[in-house]
Amino acid sequence: MQYGLTKKGVRQLAYKFAKANGKKYPQSWGEEQIAGEEWMRGFLKRHSSSLSIRKPKATSLSRATSFNRYNVERFFNNVKDVHSRFGPISPEKIWNLDETGLSIVQAQSKIVAPKGMKQIGSATSGERGQLVTMIAAVNAVGNSLPPMFIFPRVHFKDRMLFSGPAGCIGAANISGWSNDGTFLKFLDHFLGSVMCSKEYRVILILDNHETHPSVQALGKASAAGVVILTFPPHTLHKLQPLDISVYAPMKTYYNQAVESWLYNNRGKTIDIYAVAEAAGIAYPKAFTPQNILSGFRKSGIYPLDTEIFTDDDFLGAYVTDRIPGSQPTENVTARPESVEENSRPHITSADLDEPTPGTSFDAGNKRSGSDTPQSKHEVANIVTPGEVQPYPKATPRKKSNRGRRVGKTMMATDTPEKLALKEQQERKKKKQKYCKEKVRHPKKVVRNLAGIAKLQPGIKKASRMDLQN
């Protein structure tokens, strides 16, 4: 559920559990209101086969909230809709596209060092590195296209791709990120490498980044017979094949290649002109058919498996039960039996990490006998840990007035979706134009708003006051 207990949290829960059930415990537990460290060591030792101390991976609240059964079912319904409308799509026609960032400052690998040293250093090119974006595409038979690199420069130079992956292409953007122009260039690269037409449809699955569903890109893809399908927002860590099994090893091999470059060029700093060379070493190691096929299989895209995710996978969304844009009271995630609030499972003494009936903890934290054994009824009605410390549950979400567009999974090349996206982008352009005019000619904008307010009283009043302030 993304809210795991630390060792201290487990000890606090153990104390609450013992107190709620009238168990005897050491006096020190009651004074500090927490179980002792000795108990914790014994608890982990008794459950060494099923429990361990692990460092969790940070998961944003957006991901925990958005990866729910409702969003996943909508995505798989769209996948099935594509198969039904255009006939069964063979795996070589199913493609996934995504970007990732490659920095000139690599993540540090572990090294062998003597014990007792408080700090161990490792050479890097700088404290903050420049970022080069790599766009890649893979299909469900394990093939991949030569990638595209976007360098943080105004003009692109061919020498930036020295020793890069075979067939790779490049572009430049001052920020180093992808934009509408660079995505169109990669789309041309994709269409030139993949056989597709109106009779030979191809599915291209990608995220909802604003540079992807542009009007020009959708028009070009639709004319070439490419069906663009988007993922639900904040679900890529579970649904996108590239994120699941390809980009993680790519980053590992890339960091190793950068470390080797620094080792072989001691005293020199790596720059963006060596990024393609390091990526050329890492790319064939990471983009293997086994890794690519594993990503498509684990995401359930191919072979198509709409039940690939169980209730356990949606436990993070159970905390909030939210659909983007829906009312807070709407329940979208099936509540697993393991977190039913009113459930009271039948518990026996064998299920508890406590003394068997007839024994208790004395003040010395040792078991001592008792002449009065507990009845089965008392054991069955014991207060469970879930009742002592309820499962995490978010409060109802307040209605937002920010007016932000809610992303969704969709077939972006469908006519209704294309028209809606075109209208939205036109509104965005008008807003940007208005903001520029507001900076350049504020008095002119105020006069125009004042005239509109006379024709439509009250509608533009707030905007006019904001400008005057």
Automatic annotation (TrEMBL):
Biased composition (Basic and acidic residues): 364-379, 417-426
InterPro entries: CenT-Element_Derived (IPR050863), DDE_SF_endonuclease_dom (IPR004875)
Region feature Disordered, mapped onto this chain: 320-409, 417-436
Basic residues bias spans: 395-407, 427-436
Alphabetical list of Pfam families matching this protein: DDE_1
Range of residues in the leader sequence: none
Limits of the DDE-1 domain: 131-268
Name of the protein described by the UniProt record: DDE-1 domain-containing protein
Annotated organism of origin: Periplaneta americana (American cockroach)
Organism placement in taxonomy: Eukaryota, Metazoa, Ecdysozoa, Arthropoda, Hexapoda
